[in-house]
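REQUEST ID: PR-0412
SUBMITTED BY: lab tech R.K.
PRIORITY: routine
TASK: structure prediction, single protein chain
INPUT:
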Amino acid sequence: MIVSVLTLPIRCGCESETVQFYIEQNVFRLAAQVGGFRAGKLLRPSKSGIPFLVIAEWDDADAYDRWLAAPTRAELSNLLQPMLADEPSGDIYELVVSDTGPASGQDQQQEATS
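STATUS: complete
OUTPUT:
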């Protein structure tokens, strides 16, 4: 599994509009249509002036690449552009350690080793 992390520098005053955009456009459901998408989260910062983050889990890098190449993603990017203060940036990461927390009763689990 890989995790994509996208940094969205949101234009001042467009924070709520960005949240509504992700909800109304069903961004994560559309990502799921390309296959290999597991989960996604839009994170709003607690302080103004800090970029939003989009964290998504994918089966593998190929699944994420399919999303990057999808025409639907290009359309969404164009619609999101007026809300951005600058160009977004992103990268992918390999999940190597995950913990569900003490409420689950499970110990820390190692997902992959390098």
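NOTES: The chain has one domain: 2-110.
REVIEWED BY: pending
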